[in-house]
């Protein structure tokens, strides 16, 4: 099975290059740094440290508190963060700057992985969520380098796919040092696939371990005063194709009742910024791009968030938030970031990526589900009209966040045996 997997991976490489070129038409970053995708990273990393892999933006955001805590605890150990996408790469660079090294994780080809690990020579490898690359796992196992899957989740759909591979999956899991699952449900799915109990710990979700720093809160307050001191503001974030049109339709209807209302629209992927701008223009909205540095005038109706690394601050400007990827079948994005600002959170029905988190928020009256532009308009109208109702949902959202924190400390304790003793 391993040989077949590897042979197929080599055979599809020309199609991989074609896909990168096609994606680069909208996002030019896909045309760059191809050598890194084959393990050539000499001079870009410092060997002998911790390697942390977070495939894209969501995983990188969840990894931020972990990387900061590791740097604080082990200041002399170099950290390399790898991603697979340019957006994940930009997020890593904006979050960590010069404090960590960053390269793409190579494709899961034996030659690329060997080359990569010959250069990086990590003491410990941490993979965020669930990225199981067979050749990478084999390479680490042969080199006796501990591999920890942190913040691990495994949906019923993914588990079904892995189950079909039978012994192959079981062999793969046996080579992983430790899996730190987000909850019991995810943990039991790994056990069903053949993971030993001794290899599993349930730590909770790292996504709860976020906070609004005083600096961030101050920047948000300043921006709110500059942008909309006497206006209500709502934000729609991480939107996908098919959602921006629903958001703008809802905003048009809301403007009839709240003529002063300002919308901040933040598409999930940078290649969609232009599409969002075109939709706002065609819809006849008065809009500005965040990257222009302009301040919204009293007549500005839409601000398109086309910058990287500002999402947490932009949530701090808003009175309520809609989190995208949920009105279309993408599984939704992280509702805990707006929750940290104690504002009501609205999402569509498709939240399978955050099933456990959304269930906790919903049960505690910290999340409102909408299905289309009509229900979005109705819910936002109620929230904007009734301040007590708005504060009630915001307070409950932030309470859920605080009640479920602690995964970071539990994970740091689990990692301790694989890292050198801290000097006091």
UniProtKB/TrEMBL annotation:
<feature type="active site" description="Proton acceptor">
    <location>
        <position position="59"/>
    </location>
</feature>
<comment type="pathway">
    <text>Glycolipid biosynthesis; KDO(2)-lipid A biosynthesis; KDO(2)-lipid A from CMP-3-deoxy-D-manno-octulosonate and lipid IV(A): step 2/4.</text>
</comment>
<comment type="pathway">
    <text>Bacterial outer membrane biogenesis; LPS core biosynthesis.</text>
</comment>
<dbReference type="InterPro" id="IPR039901">
    <property type="entry name" value="Kdotransferase"/>
</dbReference>
<dbReference type="InterPro" id="IPR038107">
    <property type="entry name" value="Glycos_transf_N_sf"/>
</dbReference>
<protein>
    <recommendedName>
        <fullName>3-deoxy-D-manno-octulosonic acid transferase</fullName>
        <ecNumber>2.4.99.12</ecNumber>
    </recommendedName>
</protein>
<dbReference type="GO" id="GO:0009244">
    <property type="term" value="P:lipopolysaccharide core region biosynthetic process"/>
</dbReference>
<keyword id="KW-0812">Transmembrane</keyword>
<feature type="site" description="Transition state stabilizer">
    <location>
        <position position="207"/>
    </location>
</feature>
<keyword id="KW-0808">Transferase</keyword>
<comment type="similarity">
    <text>Belongs to the glycosyltransferase group 1 family. Glycosyltransferase 30 subfamily.</text>
</comment>
<dbReference type="GO" id="GO:0043842">
    <property type="term" value="F:Kdo transferase activity"/>
</dbReference>
<feature type="site" description="Transition state stabilizer">
    <location>
        <position position="129"/>
    </location>
</feature>
<keyword id="KW-1003">Cell membrane</keyword>
<comment type="function">
    <text>Involved in lipopolysaccharide (LPS) biosynthesis. Catalyzes the transfer of 3-deoxy-D-manno-octulosonate (Kdo) residue(s) from CMP-Kdo to lipid IV(A), the tetraacyldisaccharide-1,4'-bisphosphate precursor of lipid A.</text>
</comment>
<keyword id="KW-0735">Signal-anchor</keyword>
<comment type="function">
    <text>Involved in lipopolysaccharide (LPS) biosynthesis. Catalyzes the transfer of two 3-deoxy-D-manno-octulosonate (Kdo) residues from CMP-Kdo to lipid IV(A), the tetraacyldisaccharide-1,4'-bisphosphate precursor of lipid A.</text>
</comment>
<keyword id="KW-0472">Membrane</keyword>
<dbReference type="Pfam" id="PF04413">
    <property type="entry name" value="Glycos_transf_N"/>
</dbReference>
<dbReference type="InterPro" id="IPR007507">
    <property type="entry name" value="Glycos_transf_N"/>
</dbReference>
<dbReference type="GO" id="GO:0009245">
    <property type="term" value="P:lipid A biosynthetic process"/>
</dbReference>
<dbReference type="GO" id="GO:0005886">
    <property type="term" value="C:plasma membrane"/>
</dbReference>
<feature type="domain" description="3-deoxy-D-manno-octulosonic-acid transferase N-terminal">
    <location>
        <begin position="32"/>
        <end position="210"/>
    </location>
</feature>
<keyword id="KW-0448">Lipopolysaccharide biosynthesis</keyword>
